[in-house]
Every structure is written in structure tokens, then in C-alpha cells.
Amino acid sequence: KKFGHPWEYKGEPYAQEVTSERWEGKVIHEKDEVEQASIMDKAFSFALIRDPKERLISSWKSKVSCAGDVYGTDVLTRDFFTQRLLETAGNGPSSKVHCLSLEDFLEALQKVHQAQKERFLDRHFLPQTSGCFFKFPPEKWSMVATASDGEAFYTLAEKLGAQGAPAPYEHASTARVNVSERALALLDNVTAAEYEMLGDFLPEQHIIQPGVYLQTPSNPSLDTFSWDD
Prior knowledge:
single chain, 229 residues, 3% strand, disordered C terminus
């Protein structure tokens, strides 16, 4: 109803890129902090969150995993995301490192957190506490929901004057990741602040548990990275 026609676009930029031309200028990026606070006090605000551990493992699979054929990793941008993360973690670029194991990915994130540089992380790895909730905590939002909360999307649709529908499910990796004890400990460390802030809005139990290492196919053209003590 806001557009006067159905959303018929395919491919990039996707619907979540609300500053793209496809939104026809209907979304305004307000930079004034006083006006931001005023809007948050008056308007309906909606924040979509995800379990922090599941979100990080998903971003690893999608962006920097060495097992691209298993997880559907974006191999065209993998080197960029890998190098950028290593630089943020303080290790500098490496022409030999093109991807990261799960533990090496989490080691890099831990180094970033220890250096208090989380705000410099790419948005796929950025803690949710440093994103939507950096200025306004969850309690200031009208609704905070996960993608599994079907009722939330009907409420959002009503506010937008659109027909209600459940969240679309179109982008996912079907390969399972079994997490090592070390990886789980690292996940605990780098997501602690998110669970403290968002715990009341998340399902009671997440699916990330320790287990056997994932057997990934070998690829001699891809070197993995080992952290120095």
C-alpha cells in the first residue's frame, strides 16, 4: 500500500537495504540524535534479532569458511571479509590467508573484543549490542522479535499497511556444524554482552552445543590461519 504496487524486485539490493532506490525514498536515515530520540518516543519501532551464537556461526559459514562447497560460502567476497577481520583483530593482512576455520574466526573476534574494537567489525560480525541497540536499548523499542516469532511480522505488516505474512525463508545453509569445546568457549566470551542485553527476548535454549569437529573437504589452494601465542 505504501508503494501503490507489489514488491516485484528480484536479487540485489534486497528488501532489507532500505536506503536503496527500490524503496523510492520512503525510508529516511535520520542522523540528528535529538530527532532520533523524538522518533523513538513517538513512532512504532521494530527490531529483528537473532540468537547471538547461531548468528555468528551463520556469518562464518556465509562469509569466511574454508568449506565453501559445504556451506555455500560467498567465495567471491571471502578473501575481503577474511583480510578485513584479521586487520581489525590486529594481525594485519596476509596474502596466504583466504579463509578461516571456525575456531580461528572466533579467535579473531575475541581479539577484536579484547581490544574493544567491536564497533569496527563488518555488520555481519558486529554484535547486536553495537547495532540497533547502541543508542537505544531493547526496552526503548516498541517490539523486539526473532524471525521465529510469526505474530511479530503480522503486527509489523499492520503498522505498514500491508497484508500480514510469516517471515520468508529463502536463504539458509543446510550443512550442520558441530562445535568444539574451544569454539563454544570462544562463543561464550564474544556473545556474553549480547545475551545479557537480549536474553529476555530470545528463546530459552539455543541449538549450539559442543560436539565433534565438522569433517570439511580439503582444498590445497586455501591456507588456513593459526594464531601466534
